[in-house]
Structure formats: structure tokens, C-alpha cells
Amino acid sequence: MKRIVRYLGGTLEFGLCYKVLGPGNGCTDANWGSGQDRRSIGGLAFVLSGAAISGSSKKQSTVTLSSTQAEYMALTEAVKESIWLQAIFVDLGAKRQVEMVPHICVDNQGALALAKNPQFHARTKHMDIQYHYVREHVQNKQIALTYCPTRDMTADIFTKALPQPAFVKHRQFLGLVNYSVEVKQSVLDEDIDSNEEDSDASAGEGRSC
Hints:
A hairpin with a 2-residue loop joins strand 3 (41-48) and strand 4 (51-59). The protein is globular, with a radius of gyration of 22 Å. Helix 2 (67-92) packs across helix 4 (109-116) and helix 2 (67-92) packs across helix 5 (128-139). The longest helix has 30 residues, at 179-208. The termini are far apart. It is 48% helix and 18% strand. It is built from 7 helices and 7 strands, in the order αββββααβααβαβα. The strands form 2 sheets. It has a 5-stranded mixed beta sheet.
């Protein structure tokens, strides 16, 4: 608890920074058997316009028998979140956002294969309902799954403690930035643009003479 309070106290000037043409996609990850009761921690995040619009860190309801099963359970939650977000954006008429949220990044090749290849079904009968749920949406092209290397998996930040470089990297991808720094940089960029415009104007007047 002390670490949480210390972190919040040191990041009071941080906030989500959205951009008009920022990237968008979802990601999901799981830390297998990390709880004291050996239940895995699943995490997910969806980013639109350069910053997070949805995120979750939750202990899974059952003990999983493999890292693939833990990742697949986390993927199921991400798929449900994506379907819900798609429904919201359809109601809002946000076409560009509807096209982005179906894309989910996964860093486990086994979970990716389960969602795309029916030949693995006989080995995963204990995951039957989740298997059909994810696979149905993949087949209907409501969800598009992409492999993402673990080092680039932003959802990792929701499943366990990370080294500072990785933590800062994933925090930035979520669009969580220091506003005091961003404002200063924005003012500096505006001054540079203004000076360039003045220089161009002066050069034009010189040529006209």
C-alpha cells in the first residue's frame, strides 16, 4: 500500500493524452500461477487515439493447468471487452473506432493457435465454452488476433511488477504522460512554428522588394 501511495504522490501531474490520429488496438496477457492460491493474474488494455480507453487487472476465477490456458482465459475477457466496445462505437456512429477495437495482440503462440486452429479442440475440452466463444468471433471476423512479442506486450503492466524501463515504456504506450512536460513541449513547438512562419514571411517580403 505504501508503494501505491508513493507512486500516486509522484505522478500527480500525469494524465491520459489523446491524439486525433493516434494508434488504436487491444492487448491481453496473463501471469500464470502468480497468486498465492496459484490462480493467474489476467490483464487487458484497449488504446484508441493514442491513449487507454479501457484496462483491467484481475485474478482469474480458477486455477489453470498451463500458461496457454491462463493466456486463453485472459484472451476471452479481452474478446468480451472488444465486443462491448464495438457495440458502443456502433451506437455512437464512430466508424474509425469500430475498425480499431477488434484488433487484439497476444504474446502466447499456444493461445493464438487455439483461437485459429480447430485441430487443438480435443486437447482442450476443459476450456470448451471459452474456446467456442473466442473462436466464433474470430471466424466471424469480429475479432482479429495478432502475435506480439512479450517485450512489447503492454498488458504485461497489469499482471505483475516490471523493471522500470519496461514499466515506463508500457505506461507511455497507454498514453499516460507527464502533462507539465507535454505542455512545455507544446509551447516550445508552437514558438518554433511561429518563428519559422515569421522567417518565411520576412524572406517573402525581401524577395518582393
